[in-house]
Amino acid sequence: MILASALEGLQILLAWPNILYPVAGTLLAMVFSFLPGIGGVTLMALAVPWTFSWDPLPTVLLFGALVGGGTFMGSVTSILFNIPGTAPNAATMLDGYPLAQQGEARTAIACSATASALGSTVGIILLVAFIPVIRRVLLLFGPLEFLLLAIWGLATIALVSRRAVLKGLIAAGLGLMVGFVGMDPRTAELRYALGSEYLVDGVSVIPVFLGLFGLAEMMELYVSRRERISSQSDVDAAAGSTRAGVLAVLKNPGLFARSSVLGTMIGMVPGIGGTVASFVAYGQAAHGAKDGKFGEGDIRGVLAPEAANDAKDGGSLLPVLAFGIPGSEGTVLLLAALTLHGIVPGPELLQDQLTLVFVLIWSLFFSNWLTSVLGLATAGHFSRLTLVPAQIIVPIITLLVVLAALAYRGSMGDLLLAVGFGVLGYAMKVHGWPRVSFVIALVLAALFETNLHLTLRLHELDRLSLLDRPISLALFALLAATMVWPVINRALQRRRGVSS
Amino acid sequence: MIDGFVAKLGRTVRLARPGLALAVGVVAACDPGGGDAAAASSTANAACPGLDGRTVRWIVPYTPGGGYDVQSRLLEPFYEEAIGAEIVIEHRLGAAGRVGARTIRDADPDGRTLGIVNGSALLTQALLGHDSNIHPTRDFTAIGRLSVPSPVLFTAWDSPNRTLEELRVGTADGPLVFGIVGVGSTAWIWYVIASDLLDLDATYVAGYPGTRESSLGLMRGEFDLAGYTFDSMLDRIEPGGLRPIAQISRYSAQPLPALRDVPVVVGENGLAAKRAKELGEDPEPMVARAAALARMFQAGRMVVAPPGLDPLLTSCLRDRFAQVMHDSAFIARAAGARRKMAFAEASVVAAELEAAGPELQALGAVFREYLTEARTGSAGR
Predict the structure, then answer these.
(1) What is the DSSP string of B51-92?
(2) If I label A203, which of A294, A353, B328, B348 is the partner at 20 to 30 A Cα–Cα?
(3) A15 touches chain B (CB under 8 A)
């Protein structure tokens, strides 16, 4: 039955004029996601009323493409200008931009495109595989699992701030503090809100990313009087290699598979979203690399978050289809569009309208691949933007960042926040304080805090046992191994050194 | 002034982003619905005074894609047809809906700003003593009520305890555990109400990111029960999912088989009165308090405009709203999206709330007591 529905869904997608919807949706999502701070989610919010009078089928085709089409393009601005197109692309900046500075923008974009296409494919395969047991799988993940994932992500801070451990830890502490701004969910008391209503709901990561990386980088480019973003001046030398980018993914199958599975898994978890998925994937890549220069331009630092970010699209459809619970920002709008057309997710949908479900899945798959193919085809052109003279690129990007901060929620507070973090980011960069540690802590703060409290409380009430939760046990073992292995490895190496 | 400019810029950028024209061109070229307008109302009216062809901001105080957004979008094409203006939905998020509510309240009373507010939540926040209190009928020009929540207590379907009484007995060696999003949230209010009216020995686990996520916690067996709106959990009432065990209302929320034998809390034969009798207490105060609570929920989701709106315009907006709410095309559309509407005239809601005033104040004292316990750590953490 699943195979027949899948084939029928594919036929419907490819039939004329149905195919126009995913093509149009993908192209639109690409354009919107290329505009920093705006992103495909905004486009989806705009698309909900357009589709109001449509039939359900084209709506599903369009929204599948809008969910999938925006994920990759946000990485291009992350790599080229250190500005994430969308929040989940922020982890890609950490190594993507250093690569662009080293003249490897094309390689990084090609790697991102390849990892995105293949990652989304893994996510979709897992989605289809889980359909028969969708509810049971989702219930395997609870607060303890999320807490262990958050700790795993936070442990990355030690790796990415190897050259300035103390500064890295202080920056991470600051990141956690900023992440804790707002209302305490347990007591409804305000923390660090400084009497401002703007801060009641906490600090939004988009203005922070725009300032800490985008504005700070433009300040640094201007003050340092460098001629351009890339250190290379020759067009060919600065182009990098599309082939090298594609091969980077194929040469790291283990890392790619781990990142994609992680992305799918985190995507399945409602309320966490792609930003955490890409940062946790970045973290596991850093943990797994013995020779890496993470944060300084390691191609695996682009591969891992992009594979995870696109794989999460498939994962995030699982809770939507099973329970009508959106797993990511994009699927919230997808759910709204479906509901407005009388398509109510849940077991009935999976039973009675499985073909329509597959139309959605194929549309997502199609758009993920279309963006990546277009990304590969245009990687060379995009990479040349890093050769544009600084006196031209600095004002343009600065203006773009200001507009993005304002357009994000139409709030003056967001702009002020971006400017404040721009100054902080510049100071951190100049004085060698790792910004990466700060943002990893900021992104994971809520996940860590919420699930720490939930886990402790559930344990206190005797409602949680580690031994009953196989996924937790596996994550715990992995976490312990990650922490202990470097110590054992160092001891072994020392012993070998002594004996030789 | 700057804020106004920023808001306008944000709106403009959002509405006129590059690609939008392309989108409309490409996508509308093959408009599968023929642009018919399921939306088009069956009624034709002259525009409301001063709104003909104008743009009206419709403020939604919660996130895109949520219940408030979906209901607003369902209403939008019908209401804009009825009032003769173009409605543009704008999300003003923050402070549990207060930012959006304040945006409407502080706008110019020219009919160009309307929106939807969470009436019962605003009342709750006022009762909790939070600052910036905004009353859903006194501080706005109320247009009418769109819908009301149907709060229901659920337990896990697979739980051996299938009624409140069985739960009480089954967990006799410890408190009943509720799952909630946060202290002060709607789910927390339901925990307070259930504990107070039904004299439950209860505590809670707080911190679930949203009600839907907490429903997964309930299915995983992390806590015993939780309150959700019935409509939001419709697809989960089945084996392996959730089981409704009490309705926090005077009458059954919906005539569905799933609620057939589920007792109500409010009323003379409700669970609150029965519990008081079991304890040998006078049931009257409990009945009155439960009734005040039911009235508070009746504030529901209110459509409002800024205070001081011209009476002629107010009357037109109210009439047209009532017209849409009775429009069969709108009702069918809402039913298709599984959104239950519950229209009431603004004056009716206001009168209900005023009548419940003293009892609501008493309820407020209970809320504040529980809030203090939460903050001093003597209640669930």
Answers:
(1) -TT-EEEEEE-S-TTSHHHHHHHHHHHHHHHHHTSEEEEEE-
(2) A294
(3) no
Write the residue in B95, B222, B238 that is nearest to A200 by C-beta.
B95
pLDDT for position B1:
40
Per-residue pLDDT for A327 more than 70? no
Q: Which residue has the tokens 């946000």?
A: A74
Report the C-alpha gap between B172 and B143 in whole angstroms. 48
H/E element holding A87? Answer: none
* Predicted pLDDT at B131: 55
pLDDT mean over B52-80: 86
- The DSSP line for B315-351 is HHHHHHHHHHHT-HHHHHHHHHTT-----EEHHHHHH
B260: tokens are 């057939």
Q: How many helices (H) and strands (E) does chain B have?
A: 14, 11
Burial class (CB in 10 A: 0-12, 13-18, 19+), A389: exposed
Identify whether the C-beta of residue A285 lies closer than 8 Å to the C-beta of residue A304.
yes
Q: Pick from A206, A363, A463 the residue to mutate for testing the B interface (most B CBs within 10 Å).
A: A463
**Rounded percentage of chain A residues whose pLDDT exceeds 90:** 14
Q: In what order do the strands lie in the sheet with B151-156?
A: B202-206, B176-180, B225-229, B151-156, B242-247
User: Distance between the two ends of chain A, CA-based, in angstroms?
Assistant: 64
What is the side-by-side strand order in the sheet with B55-60?
B86-91, B55-60, B113-118, B301-305, B141-147, B344-345
**DSSP annotation of B142:** E
- Rounded CA-CA distance B224/B154 in Å is 9
Is B178's Cβ below 8 Å from some Cβ in A? no
* Residue B34 binned pLDDT confidence (cut-offs 50, 70, 90): very low
Cβ pair B146, B71 in contact under 8 A: yes
* pLDDT tier, B10 (very low <50, low <70, confident <90, very high otherwise): very low
pLDDT tens figures, B101-147: 888 998 999 999 999 998 888 888 888 876 556 888 888 999 999 99
Residues 19-48 of chain B with CB under 8 A from chain A are 19-20, 22-24, 26-28, 30-39
Interface with A, mutate which of B8, B63, B220 (most A CBs under 10 A): B220
**Cα A139 → chain centroid:** 23
The residues, ordered by sequence, that sit 6+ positions from B286 with a Cβ below 8 Å of its Cβ are B197, B272, B273, B275, B276
Q: What is the mean pLDDT of residues A398-418?
A: 83
| Angle between the N-to-C axes of helices A435-460 and A90-101, in degrees from 0 to 180, rounded to the nearest 10 | 160
| Record: contact A454-B208, CB cut-off 8 A | yes
* 3-state SS class at B176: strand
Distance CA A337, CA B82 (A): 23
Q: With a threshold of 0.80, does the pTM exceed it?
A: no
Contact B10 A45 (CB under 8 A): no
How far apart are the CA of A113 and the nearest CA of chain B, in angstroms? 22
Q: Measure CA A441 to chain center.
A: 15
pLDDT for residue A37: 56
Q: Do A323 and B74 touch (CB under 8 A)?
A: no
Check A336 against B30: CB less than 8 A apart. Answer: no
- Digit-coded pLDDT (tens) for A210-267: 888 888 888 888 888 777 776 666 655 555 688 888 898 999 899 999 999 988 888 8
pLDDT, tens digit, for every residue of B278-319? 888 888 888 888 888 888 888 889 999 999 999 999 999 999
How much is the average pLDDT of B37-61?
74
Q: Which residues of A touch B240 (CB under 8 A)?
A: 135
Which residues in chain B are contacts of A339 at CB distance < 8 A? 70, 337-339
Map residue A16 onto helix, strand or coil.
coil
- Looking at the complex, report in whole angstroms how far the Cα of residue B283 sits from the nearest Cα belonging to chain A: 32
**Smallest CA–CA separation between B34 and chain A, in Å?**
8
